[in-house]
Design a protein that fits this description.
5 helices; alpha/beta; about 140 residues; six-stranded mixed sheet; Rossmann fold; globular
Length: about 140
């Protein structure tokens, strides 16, 4: 993996992420890794003590991680939500809308290109897990 891109104020979690099954067997684990096909709903009762959730994107076309991220954020998860794996520059904005606040892509990304991708659209048209106010609501109160 390459450099971790974080958009959080707190310190990164140093604990290694474990699989969902291992997490459920280790009550003191603070970091979990979600693979495509994992049922994230089993984590919902444990969100208060989870500090890091890594969501693996083994291939860029597998979008199940977006749903997992949004499910966790809508359930109240406030810890670090990190997209790992085959994360591409043009996906960052949508990943952020789903609630990701950290990225660990397989290939290095130019920091200026990352910031440009995240700043590309200053307004959003629909509500999402990132809490941005949709532009129609800004216009019409």
């Amino acid at each position: 993996m390459v450099e971790l891109l974080r958009f959080r104020e707190d310190e990164p979690v140093a604990d290694p992420a474990v699989t969902v099954d291992a997490f459920l067997d280790q009550p003191d684990a603070r970091a979990v890794r979600i693979e495509p096909g994992d049922d994230v709903s089993v984590l919902l009762p444990h969100l208060a003590h989870v500090q890091l959730v890594e969501v693996n994107f083994p291939v860029f076309g597998d979008g199940r991680g977006y749903s997992a991220a949004r499910t966790l954020r809508e359930a109240g998860y406030a810890g670090e939500l990190r997209a790992v794996g085959d994360v591409l520059l043009d996906q960052l904005s949508n990943m952020r809308r789903c609630g990701f606040d950290a990225f660990e892509p397989e290939r290095a990304m130019d920091p200026q290109a990352v910031q440009a991708a995240l700043d590309r659209w200053p307004h959003d048209y629909q509500p999402a897990a990132d809490g941005h106010v949709p532009i129609w609501k800004l216009r019409h109160g």
